[in-house]
Amino acid sequence: MRFALSEDQTMLRDAARDLLRGECSPERLREAWAGDGRIPGLWKTLADNGLLGVCAPESVGGLELGMVELCLVLEEAGYVALPEPLLEVAAVTVPHLGSDPRLCDVVTGERLILVAQGEPLLCADDADEILGGSLEEAVHSVDESRRLRATTGALTSLHGVVGAAAILAGLGRRMLDMAVEYASVRRQFGKPIGSFQAVQHHLVDARLALEFVGPVVTRAAWALDHPEDTDLDELPAAAHAAMAKSLASDAALLAARKALQVHGAIGYTTEYDLHLFMKRTWALAHTFGTSDAHRADLARHLTRNHA
Amino acid sequence: MKILTTVKRVVDPDAKVRLNSDNSGLVTEGLEAKMNAFDQYGVEEAIKLKEAHGGEVIVVSIGDSAGTKEIRTALAMGGDRGVLVTADMSEIDPKGVADLLAAVIEREAPDIVLMGKLSVDSENNQVGQRVAAKLGWPQATFAFTCEVADGWATVGREVDGGTANVRVKLPAIVTADLRLNEPRYASLPGIMKAKRKPIEELTPDDLGVELEPQLIIQGYSLPPARAAGEIVDDVDSLIDRLQNTAKVL
After folding, report:
1. What are the residue ranges spanned by the domains of chain B?
2. Residue A215 lies in a domain
3. Long-range contact list for A269-278, CB < 8 A, 24+ apart?
């Protein structure tokens, strides 16, 4: 049994990584915060490089790949805190539209079609069309790159839930990388602070939590790609999605807390980049269902045959 | 137009490399590998030439089979087919690389060869020049512009203190410098298409090249650790230190 990415999947992830790290630096993210929340021209670049259509059929210009591949891309998007509605389009709109011809313009970035799911919706004011519900008042986010509008409707996109988990995994990884880097260069008492056991505890706790997220997100993505392939518990994809999002939210929130602790006072400042990733984590952990809501959902799946 | 371009697999220049225990080489295990940055400019220019003039782009690399990843990346950017010469890079010097590339170029007979000006790992800056000398072709190194028309390439070159414009008759070797272009990303659809593009594997024997290194690296050493800074009491002390200790004023 092989639990590893294929060479093609690795290359797709690496290509997405190169593009996203090249185009979405913390400096450009700060400009997005100060501007309209987005990076000028980046949406078209994402479309031109195929990121919007990972799961779309080839007939509309997509790659016709699955959620496993899209999650690799979204994790990289999380790593750079991409301030674009990639999750909302690639993981929600595309599966929602199926093989609808409108998808042609969606994957080329010509039209922005979003799906209202009863939660605050990112970039709703930029959308050409809103499906599934309607827009309501503007909502403030702790992450100032997120321009949101409240919506009607209900959270139905499991792809969105799993995609959000992948982004949170990437955010967690970024914050841990920053904390490890900082602990290696910040010296106190003549040594890097990373050599002190109390600091190491924080780093290890965050890494352990994040390490368990990856396989569960991939499992949930696999379940969405193969709905017929239920495991021994016969848990549906919805249960795997609930596990992925609750674990990812908890792990990313823990990584944020630990990274903040390791950084000390500098971590609280807006001049330092850590807050860009922490605030996105805080925002996303409570979007596409909270950890508590997904735990309750998982409980329903576990007990449904005994109720 | 037949365009040949070369790619080298190098350790990610942002990675922290360590020396092995006897300082005879670098510890590269576990470090991420990437396409040599200057080769990306060469690949991009090759693809731009194909887009402008038609034809095909052949991507050539030398190294172990892991090098197919860099070839595939170049194919995903827009190259048409690859050639990997399998060889142990630790036993090849710049002359060996040039001999192997010259043999591939003679087989393929391209109209122009675009290469990075140097590889960011060894920084020898020899291969393009050696290939041109071996083939007897004109060369235009350190290119920051490149235009092809009527069997000639007009190349702007980065030189000390300014730039120089040269014309070289094709076929020619052009080596790419930083300002030549902005390399495109390997797109996700490009990666899916690259799977179906052929990569031919050759050995030095297939090319009739005998590798006899003439340059042997004897050892490496790290730069000396930076001494601690010093806080001085006043401006006069600072000027005194700069004049008499650092001797920079």
Report:
1. 2-219
2. yes
3. A273/A26, A273/A178, A274/A175, A274/A178, A276/A26, A276/A29, A276/A30, A276/A33, A276/A81, A277/A81, A277/A171, A277/A174, A277/A175, A277/A178, A278/A175
Q: Does A109 touch chain B (CB under 8 A)?
A: no
**Rounded to the nearest 5°, which phi and psi values hold at B119?**
-100, 140
Distance in angstroms (rounded) separating the CA atoms of residues A86 and A89: 5
Q: Which CATH number fits domain B2-219: 3.50.50.100, 1.10.1740.10, 3.30.2160.10, 3.40.50.620?
A: 3.40.50.620
Pairing between strand B152-159 and B139-149? Answer: antiparallel
B187 contacts A48? CB cut-off 8 A: yes
Residue B54 φ/ψ region, left for φ over 0, alpha for ψ in the -120 to 50 degree band, beta for the rest:
left
Provide the residue type at A29 as one letter.
Answer: L
Same domain membership, residue A277 and residue A168: yes
Q: Are residues A220 and A88 in the same domain?
A: no
Determine which of A11, A21, A60 to mutate to test the interface with B (most B C-beta atoms within 10 Å).
A11
Q: Do B191 and A12 touch (CB under 8 A)?
A: yes
Domain count of chain A? Answer: 2
Write out the two tokens for A128.
Answer: 């050409």
Structural domain boundaries, residue A296 = 158-305
Is it the case that residue A232 has pLDDT exceeding 70?
A: no
Is the minimum CB–CB distance between B228 and chain A shorter than 8 Å? Answer: no
**Cβ partners under 8 Å of residue A47, min gap 6:** A53, A107, A108, A109
Average pLDDT over residues A15-37: 95
Q: Are residues A174 and A263 in the same domain?
A: yes
Domain boundary among the residues A80, A112, A144 is at A112
**pLDDT value at position A1?**
67
Residues in chain B with pLDDT values less than 50? none
Residue in chain A nearest B72 by alpha carbon: A11
